[in-house]
Amino acid sequence: QEKFTYFWRYESPFSQHYPVTFELDGMTFNCAEQYYMFKKADTFGDQRSIFNIMKSCSPIAQKSLGRKVAGFDRNKWDAISRQIVRKANFAKFSQNEELLQILLSTRGTTLVEASPKDALWGINLEADNYLVLKRNWWRGQNWLGEELTKLRD
């Protein structure tokens, strides 16, 4: 039977909002969400959003700014967004030994973002909902969990 490691919220090292410094593309980021939103603004050439995202210390504010990126094209973004998350998390975990050990400690399980608010990156369910117990009951795609599981393995 498949075993799962559930996570959600910024307190989890697996969260994109978890506060941790890493360097990527010659820049320093304060969390994976900041890199993700930076790349979103950069992909669509929105210099003002790049500036505001990089100036912000808050992943919630960064996400909000990322939702307002000028020239955003959903199809283009969906085609590359997983690669961006993969790259951010590789940097995050490879540059922070303590986080890497936490990730490696989940071996033998599938990582699952138990976010009740996200049907793409998460499973659209909270961890205390019985529907999380079986993959075919999930209401979301779990892209983040899949990327983290692949990174770990």
Automatic annotation (TrEMBL):
<protein>
    <recommendedName>
        <fullName>NADAR domain-containing protein</fullName>
    </recommendedName>
</protein>
<dbReference type="InterPro" id="IPR037238">
    <property type="entry name" value="YbiA-like_sf"/>
</dbReference>
<feature type="domain" description="NADAR">
    <location>
        <begin position="6"/>
        <end position="153"/>
    </location>
</feature>
<dbReference type="InterPro" id="IPR012816">
    <property type="entry name" value="NADAR"/>
</dbReference>
<dbReference type="Pfam" id="PF08719">
    <property type="entry name" value="NADAR"/>
</dbReference>
